Amino acid sequence: MQLRSTLRFFALVCLLAAQTGAPGDATLAAEQPKAARPNIVVILVDDMGYSDLGCYGSEIETPNLDRLAANGVRFTQFYNTARCCPTRAALLTGLYQHQAGIGHMTRNDGLPGYQGYLNDRCVTLAEALKPAGYTTLMVGKWHVGGQPGQWPLDRGFERYWGTPTGGGVYFKDTLKIRRSIFFVADNQRVEPPDDMYVTDTFTDRAIEFVDAAVKQGQQPFFLYLAHIAPHFPLQAKPSDIAKYKGRYDIGWDAVRQQRFERQKKLGIVPPDAQLSPRDPEAKPWDEMSAEEKAALAHRMEIYAAQIDCIDQNVGRLINKLQELNQLENTLIVFLSDNGCSAEGGPGGFNRGQPDAPIGTALSYSSLGLQWANVADTPLRKFKISTHEGGISTACIAHWPAAIKPGRLVNQPAHVIDVMPTLLDVAGATYPSQRNGKKVLPPEGISLKPWLLAEDAGPAGKPRPLFWEHMGNKAVRLGDWKAVADFRHDWKLYNLANDRIESENLADKHPEKLQELVALWNDWAKRCGVVNWNRIQRIRRNAENAQ
Fold it and tell me: Which backbone phi and psi does 11 adopt, to 5 degrees?
C-alpha cells in the first residue's frame, strides 16, 4: 500500500505539472527516484484493422486488451504511416520515416530518405532510454535494417530475440517457403523451436526477458514487443480457428454493420457518424456462391484466430507483470503499424504449396479486400493508402499508477508522438548527438497530458500532421484533411463530420486546400520526401544495369 501511495503521489506531481504547463516538468521527472519511473512496454501488431478489437467494436474475442482499455485510455484518432517499415522507423525515433532513412521500405535507393535502414541522424527509443537507467529489451519483427550492423543491439537494445528482416512466418515449416526470413538471439542466428507458433514464441521470449530483468534488479525496463500477427499469411493454431467456426457465415456486409453499431455504443465514433460505403471492389455478400461464401468465411475465421492469439499472449504478459508485482507501475502502449491489408484484392491470394490447407504452415494466403473492408470499419481504404482506413490504428495506453481508467481520447495523435511521450514519462532526455554527430530533433509531441489528465487534455493551436507513402499523400490540420492518391489530384475533407472522407470540399474551400497543400510541400522538402516517379525510375535503372 505504501508503494502504491508513493506512485500515485508522483503521478499527481506529473499531472499538476502537465496541467499548469510548468517549465520544470522535465526536471521534476528527471529528479524522480528510480523506483518511481514506470516500466514501459510497447506492443506493436502488424496489419490489424481499426475495428479488430472488442473495445473498438469487433466480435473477435479480445478480453485482455479490452481490460487494458477499460482500465486505461483509448485513442480514437491515432495515426500510423500506412506501412510497416515506415511506422517502425517513426515509432522508434520520433521522426517522420523519411528523416530516419526509411521513406519506403528496406531497399536502398541511394537517397538519404530512402536508404532502407535507420540512419545516423536519428536516435532510437532504446538509445535514449538506456542512459536514463532503463534496461532495453526487444522481441519480434525489427524491419528497419536487415544487415548485420543495423540490428537492435546496434541501436541501443541490450537483448533481442526475433527476425531482423521482416515477417510472414508463423510456424517453423513456413521457413521452407519464406526463405529470406531468419531468427537471431542478440546478434547470432538461431534455429526457432520446432513447435514455434511465432506469436506464442515471441511472448515466451518477452516473458523471459522481463522476468530476468526484474529478478536481477535491472529496472526500470523498456520492452518493445513487435508481433508479426495478424499480417499475412493466414496461419493459426487449429484450436484458435475452431473457436470462430461458422461465426462469419453471415458475411462481410452484416459483420461490418454490426461492428459499426458497436462502435457507436462504445463512443469510438459519434452517434451520428456514417458508415463508409462498401468498397467498390467488394461485391455484396449475397451475390457470392455458396462455395465462395464457405471459402471466404474461413479466411476470416483464421484471421480472427490470429488476433485472438495476440490477445491471449497479451494476457500471458500481463499475468507475468502481476506475478512480479510490476503491473501497477508499467505503462503499456498497444497499437498497429497500419490499417488492414487488402493485398490480393477481392478474395485474397494463395501463394503457398497447392495442396496445403489454408491456415497451415505451408499455405500462404491473404485475407482479401472484402474482409479488410470490415477490419477497417467504418473507414475507407486500406494499408498503403493515406486515407483514414490506411493510417488509423487502435491505440490503448494502460498505467494503473497514473492513468484514470476508462477514458476515450479524441485528440489526433501520431506514431511520431510515441517517443516524446515515453521519454517524458521516463524522465529521459532526447539526445542531441549520436556517436558525436548531431541528430535531428523529434517531430512528435508528448501525449502525457492526455494520458494523465481527467479531461480531454490541454487545448491549443492544432498542429499539422503529414503522410507520404509510394506517392500517396495527406496532411491534416485540425479537422481539415487533404489527401491525394498517387497520380490523382488533392481532395479536401472535414473530418469533424466526415471521417469516412465521403464529401470532397476542394471546390467549396479552395483557399483551405491551397493552405494545406503548401504545408505539405514545405514538409516534404524539409523531410527529404522524393517524388515517387523518381524512385521508380531509380529502381528501373538499377535493375537494367544489372
Answer: -60, -40
Specify whether the CB–CB gap between 230 and 307 falls below 8 A. Answer: yes
d(CA 326, CA 308): 24
What separation in angstroms does the CA of 510 have from each of 58, 493, 505? 38, 12, 8
The answer to whether 84 is a known catalytic residue is: yes
Check pLDDT > 70 for residue 21.
no
Helix (H, G, I), strand (E, B) or coil at 63: helix
Side chain identity, residue 62: T
**Contact partners, residue 271, CB within 8 Å, separation at least 6:** 264
| Angle ∠(168,169,174) on CA atoms, nearest 5 | 120
DSSP designation for 114: B
Instruction: Kindly state the cell numbers that stand for 36.
Output: 518511481
Torsion of CA 517, 521, 524, 527, to 10 degrees: -120
Distance of CA 228 to the CA centre of its chain: 11
Q: Are the C-beta atoms of 364 and 351 separated by less than 8 Å?
A: yes
Give the separation between CA 44 and CA 50, rounded to whole angstroms: 13
How many Å separate Cα 421 from the centre of its chain? 15
Of residues 14, 55, 84, 527, which has the active-site annotation? Answer: 84
Using alpha carbons, select from 270, 238, 113 the residue that is nearest to residue 170.
238
223 in helix, strand or coil?
Answer: strand
Question: Smallest Cα–Cα separation from 258: which of 59, 66, 392, 63?
Answer: 59
Q: How far apart are CA 338 and CA 80, in angstroms?
A: 6
Mean pLDDT value across residues 409-418: 97
For residues 215 and 196, the answer to whether their CB atoms sit within 8 Å is no
Q: Name 306's Cβ contacts closer than 8 Å, sequence gap at least 6.
A: 199, 229, 230, 234, 235, 236, 240
| Per annotation, catalytic residue among 14, 55, 122, 143 | 143
Task: Using pLDDT thresholds of 50, 70 and 90, give the confidence band for residue 457.
Answer: low
3-state secondary structure of 165: coil
* pLDDT tens per residue, range 366-405: 999 999 999 999 999 999 999 999 999 999 999 999 999 9
Q: What amino acid is encoded at 32 in this protein?
A: Q
Grid cell locating 350: 494463395
